[in-house]
Amino acid sequence: MAQLRQGILIAIEGIDGSGKSTLARGLSEQLAQLNISTVLTREPGGSPLGKHLRTLLQHPEININPTAEFLLFAADRAQHFTQIIIPALNNKQLVISDRLSDSSLVYQGFGKGVDQQMIRSVNQWAMQGIKPDLTIYLHIDAQTAMERIHARGKALTAFEKEPIEFTQKLIDGFSSLYSPSPKRQAAYPVNMRQENHADPAVVAEKSTMAESSALSEGRAQAMEELRRKEESLLHKNRKDVMMIDGAQSQDKILADVSHKVHAWIKENHYL
Ligand SMILES: Nc1ncnc2c1ncn2[C@@H]1O[C@H](COP(=O)(O)OP(=O)(O)OP(=O)(O)O)[C@@H](O)[C@H]1O
Ligand SMILES: [Mg+2]
């Protein structure tokens, strides 16, 4: 398997039945064919603690207040990042997560009215400031998704039992997060890509160092430390989005996404 230059975090987002789990598995297999190994995980439920929380959260008979619900997702997330995601990123692996933080923003925020600024802050805290490098959003209409969930033939979770109006709210929430609005267009000039912004403090510190004369050993070490600090900041600030039409056939989605993700990995010099 090829060795990546740094860890990569990819999130797959979308409403229930949009095809996230199917795509996550397929993408992992396709990347393995291209010699890139992946760590496949999910929220909720990526860690041993998370498996218990997932059962609680999806239980159709337990009435959970929206804030409590978000905090349970956040607890799952904190454990998931500490135990699974961060160690894998430190190990230069490619992590694919079936749902991540934006699902909370959309389900508990847009869907159930929990304060969105609070969700963003707690998410950031639980994720130790790390953001996904790439988010793949499967966009699909409520009716098609619901038909798929029913055809799947499994018992419905609490979220899958919500009325279609709730699902429509979620679709609107995801769209407002990922659609290139005029304001966002400026931030995502090419292919919805937000360029990395170097932290001004790091830039200032670096230029002061570059100006000073001979590069003593101590200084070289400090430069190396700054380079690493800058690299980790790049990781934290980066956010690319791929919007995919989830109503297409499974094969078409998989071929399209695999091709795009492979190109994105190469374009960002991760290989
Ligand atoms: N592109 C597709 N076309 C038709 N059916 C699909 C497609 N992708 C997935 N399915 C089927 O639709 C159902 C839902 O897919 P999947 O479980 O991957 O969705 P999900 O987004 O993970 O849903 P959930 O959020 O409920 O876990 C499954 O039975 C799956 O086999
Ligand atoms: Mg799923």
CATH structural class of the largest domain: Alpha Beta
| Number of strand segments | 6
CATH topology of the largest domain: Rossmann fold
Largest sheet: 6 strands, mixed
Characterise this structure:
The protein has 271 residues and is of the alpha/beta class. It folds into 2 domains: 8-195 and 239-267, 3-Layer(aba) Sandwich (Rossmann fold), CATH 3.40.50.300; 197-237. It is 57% helix and 11% strand. The chain has 11 helices and 6 strands. It has helices at 20-33, 48-58, 66-90, 101-111, 116-126, 142-152, 164-178, 182-187, 200-211, 217-237, 250-267, and strands at 8-13, 38-42, 94-98, 134-139, 193-194, 239-245. The longest helix has 25 residues, at 66-90. The radius of gyration is 20 Å and the shape is globular. The chain binds adenosine-5'-triphosphate and magnesium ion. Adenosine-5'-triphosphate binds at residues 14, 16-22, 148, 152, 249-250, 253.
Task: Give a short overview.
Helix content is about 55%, strand content about 10%.
Which labels suit this protein?
271 residues, alpha/beta, Rossmann fold, 2 domains, six-stranded mixed beta sheet, 11 helices, globular, binds adenosine-5'-triphosphate, binds magnesium ion
List the helices and strands and how they pair.
Layout: E1 8-13, H1 20-33, E2 38-42, H2 48-58, H3 66-90, E3 94-98, H4 101-111, H5 116-126, E4 134-139, H6 142-152, H7 164-178, H8 182-187, E5 193-194, H9 200-211, H10 217-237, E6 239-245, H11 250-267
Parallel strand pairs: 1-3, 1-4, 2-3, 4-6
Antiparallel strand pairs: 5-6
The chain binds adenosine-5'-triphosphate (ATP) and magnesium ion.
Residues 20-21, 98 line the site of magnesium ion (MG).
